Amino acid sequence: MGKVECMDDFFKLLHPRPVVLIVAQGRSKVNAMACSWCTPISEEPPTVGVVLARESYTRELILESKEFTINIPSRELLSAVWIAGTKSGRDVDKIKLMNVTLKPSKKISTPIIEECIGHLECKVMSWYEIGECTLIVGEVLSAYADEDKLYRGNWDVRKAEVLLHLGGSVFVIPSKQVYLATK
Ligand SMILES: Cc1cc2nc3c(=O)[nH]c(=O)nc-3n(C[C@H](O)[C@H](O)[C@H](O)COP(=O)(O)O)c2cc1C
User: What confidence tens digit (pLDDT) does each residue in 101-114 have?
Assistant: First the structure.
């Protein structure tokens, strides 16, 4: 069997990857979007990177307020994730449509989504325009998660049901741990 050409959709080789809900706050509106191009960058200082399309309303709000929250949804929020990822806050009140609850953050003004199982509060450090996207680097000021969904600091995958985005409307839930054989 040979190798097949994947250049047109090269990024698909890097999926499935966790999908998060990014919350941003404007002067009169709070908005959320689904994002699977999200990565830790460094531990010291604690930083993350999120990649947002140039036309996204969330990008506009983040660059205005210079802060955002990253919220980790579980399986029960799948339809809310789909709304956050297919409609724009420019046209609709997504928080209302998603039927989620906003809760004040600990360190920043932008709220978190209470129903999510993990939360990172971030302040914008820098951003880079690359192609049709903007890479926003955020310093993590606070991070916390539902105690009952963690096991020794990692997600307990049987309980957390973390959503990974494969592509299109297909998601994957990791539920099996594999172990290295030790001598
Ligand atoms: C599972 C999933 C993951 C997504 N990941 C990203 C992403 O990483 N970056 C991005 O710009 N858009 C991503 N999108 C698309 C945005 O969420 C979508 O364009 C959204 O309507 C933007 O909303 P806004 O205009 O309110 O910011 C994703 C959509 C889905 C369904």
Answer: 999 999 999 999 99
| Domain total of the chain | 1
**Pocket flag, ligand 1, residue 37 (CB < 6 Å):** yes
51 C-beta closer than 6 A to ligand 1: yes
CA of 99 to the centre of ligand 1 (A): 18
End-to-end CA distance of the chain, in Å?
A: 35
Note down the domain range covering 142.
7-172
111 by DSSP, 3-state: which? coil
Structure tokens at 30: 């709070």
Whether the CB of 36 sits within 6 Å of ligand 1 = yes
The verdict on pTM exceeding 0.90 is yes
Q: Is residue 38 part of a domain?
A: yes
